[in-house]
Specification:
It comes from Streptococcus pneumoniae. Pfam families: PEP-utilisers_N (PF05524), PEP-utilizers (PF00391). This is Phosphoenolpyruvate-protein phosphotransferase. Helices cover about 55% and strands about 10% of the residues. Helix 1 packs across helix 6, helix 4 packs across helix 5 and helix 5 runs antiparallel to helix 6. Strands 1-5-4-3-2 form a 5-stranded mixed beta sheet, covered by helices on one side. With about 210 residues, it is of the alpha/beta class. The longest helix has 30 residues. It has 2 domains: about 70 residues, Phosphohistidine domain (Glucose Oxidase, domain 1); about 110 residues, Enzyme I, Chain A, domain 2, CATH 1.10.274.
Length: about 210
C-alpha cells in the first residue's frame, strides 16, 4: 500500500532517487559535579575552537557553491562562538555550580534561546535563537567526541531524508548527487529552504 506524505514545497522541482537517511548523533549527557573547573573551562575552549574551525571550512565551501551573500549566514554563527558575554556566562556557571562543560554550555545557551524565541515581534532576534541552537549542537558534539553528519561525503544520487537540516548541513550538499531533501520541520523562509532554492535542489519541509 502506497502512502502519500504532504509537506511544504520549499524549493520547486521533481526528483527520483534512493533515500539517504541523515542521522544525527546522540548528544545526550549527564550533569557531573567536578572539582577541577579549570579543566572543564579548557575543554570548553577547545570545543569552541574546534567548532570555529569547522564552521570556517564550511563557510568557505558555501562561498564557492552559494556565493558570498548566502554564505554570510555562517558569520552570525561564528560570532556566537566568539561571543564574550555568552562564553563568560558559561564559564561562570561551570565555576559557580561546579559542573562539567556540557552542563554549563546547555544551561546558558538554553536561557539565551528561550529569551530570543520569546521576541515574537523581532524576527531578527528569533533567527539568533536558531543560530545559538545550531552552534550549541556543534560544540556539544566536540565536547562529547561525536561526529556530526557530513553531507559532503555523499557521492551518489540520493534524496536526503532528515528531521531537520541546518544551514551548515545544506551548505555541504553537492547538487550533482543530492537531487532533493525532505525534512520533518521547516518552512519556505527557513535558511535551509533559501539555500535549497539557491542550489536549485528540490525540497519539501514540514
Amino acid at each position: 500500500m502506497t502512502e502519500m506524505l504532504k509537506g511544504i514545497a520549499a524549493s520547486d522541482g521533481v526528483a527520483v532517487a534512493k533515500a539517504y537517511l541523515l542521522v544525527q548523533p546522540d548528544l545526550s549527557f549527564e550533569t557531573i559535579t567536578v572539582e577541577d573547573t579549570n579543566a572543564e573551562e579548557a575543554r570548553l575552549d577547545a570545543a569552541l575552537q574546534a567548532s570555529q574551525d569547522e564552521l570556517s571550512v564550511i563557510r568557505e565551501k558555501a562561498v564557492g557553491t552559494l556565493g558570498e551573500e548566502a554564505a554570510q549566514v555562517f558569520d552570525a554563527r561564528l560570532m556566537v562562538l566568539a561571543d564574550p558575554e555568552m562564553i563568560s556566562q558559561i564559564k561562570e556557571t561551570i565555576r559557580a555550580k561546579k559542573v562539567n562543560a556540557e552542563a554549563g554550555l546547555k544551561e546558558v545557551t538554553d536561557m539565551f534561546i528561550t529569551i530570543f524565541e520569546g521576541m515574537e515581534d523581532n524576527p531578527y532576534m528569533q533567527e539568533r535563537a536558531a543560530d545559538i541552537r545550531d552552534v550549541t549542537k556543534r560544540v556539544l558534539a566536540n565536547l562529547l567526541g561525536k561526529k556530526l553528519p557530513n553531507p559532503a561525503s555523499i557521492n551518489e544520487e540520493v534524496i536526503v531524508i532528515a528531521h531537520d537540516l541546518t544551514p551548515s548541513d545544506t551548505a555541504q550538499l553537492d547538487k550533482n548527487f543530492v537531487k532533493a531533501f525532505v525534512t520533518n520541520i521547516g518552512g519556505r523562509t527557513s535558511h535551509s529552504a533559501i539555500m535549497a532554492r539557491t542550489l536549485e535542489i528540490a525540497a519539501v519541509l514540514g
